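User: quick one
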Amino acid sequence: MSLLQAHNLGVTYPGQASPALQHVSLQLGEGDLVVALGPSGCGKSTLLGVLAGFIAPSEGSVSFDGQPVTAPGVERAVVFQHDALLPWLNVADNVAFGLKLQGVDKARRQQVVADTLQLVGLADVGRKYTWQLSGGMRQRVGIARAIASQSKILLMDEPFGALDAFTREQMQQLLLSVWQHAGRGIFLITHDIEEALFLATELVLMSPGPGRIVQRLRPGFSQRYRDGEDVRAIKSDPDFIALREQLLRSLFAQRQAEAA
Amino acid sequence: MSANEHTLIRIPDTLPTSQRSRRPLSPTQWSLISIGSITLLWWAITASGLVPALFLPPPGDVLAKFGTLVSNGYMDATLQQHLWASLQRIVLALLAAVAVGIPLGIAIGTYPRVRHLLDPLIEFYRPLPPLAYLPLIVIWFGIGELSKVLLIFLAILAPVLIATAHGVGSVSTVRQQAALSLGASRGQLLRYVILPGALPDILTGIRIGLGAGWSTLVAAELIAATQGLGLMIQSAAQFLVTDVVVLGIIVIALVAFALELGLRRLQRRLTPWHGQTH
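Assistant: Done. Structure below.
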């Protein structure tokens, strides 16, 4: 059953002729990992903003569990690329932040924080401050904070975009194991084709001018990773490479059509 | 000459290195050097006899005066009593400026309408020299403590207001959105995200404000004061007691510097994350 439903979304920013987003519909269920892939300007950040409740759509509607979405809400935790943690709190307090806002008692908070930090491999840095950590570790804290909160789904805004290639690869695998463990739906946006293919249960390819969905795929590689297959084997599989090249060609074709 | 040669950046074969490995001086040592040099220069000028003591008393005389003022006083009050009177005014004005400036600064930083309303008023009074509106304050509020504290309060208020509004306005949007998506209410957002995020700016505003407060002390104590460092300096100036003037200046500078160091320390303790890449 799908929790989050977006129906025929359109966003036109004031003073802009072309819509930032047009005719976008999608659904996100409990075990889904929907990835929006596209170049800058394709409206994927706008789409995430609408789903999160930060941006009001000019057309269409979003609902969560049958209720219309009009504002940010605790059931839809957002993970940003950077700058979203609170540097005056230590790692444990950052992870506990969502629960504290909800008035969850301290003993329970500590339990959840310990479990979640364990899950993202940060069990021994709870007392450190976020600015004392590497970029990859900070993103783990961000993911842990979203998981520890009472969210039902995670909305991830290019969560690994600022990381180096090696860390990014590790984080993708971490995300899949966390997703499996926490059992929450994830909507993630990225401009990295490999990342999108590897992670997505459903991949939506987006294109600019106006921002819209041009293709939908169900890659299924994340399921193979969950079933125990090696990540390098998956990413060098001929099927993976063929899909990657097809998406790349499709992106370039869109760009040329636009320029013409 | 080929085109390639132009693109080469010449790097010297040997980089200049210091001949002897010397231990670098600490910041405190540098500061002591500058204080020591200026004192030495002061002493040298007065010792040479080129400048009469009326214009510039020798360091020794000022030090001796310090002893006299501590034990016998000047203008019916000891140096400690003058200092205490001034400190009380400054601290009272500072507390009032913080109590008014921070909430108002938050409102200005949060609501554009409040900013548009108050901006002209703040920018109207802020550049005015305190001596210019001093007569009005005396006419309106009399010659008591209130007028003195009010004058200092106004000087501290503007920097605190402006810094708080700026700090509140520049709290990262992403950080606020993330907190909202974790279920923060407006009040929780202010308390847990906006205020801590603005704290470095607020503390900087208080530091600048305190400096402005000290600089209006003499003007404030023109208003029928019987005690205070500002009063002490003015009276001494009228009777050409230059050593008391110099001593008053040094005492104000030392006390203000001590407060500034305390605030800097507070800032480092409260906001160690400020300026870190995050």
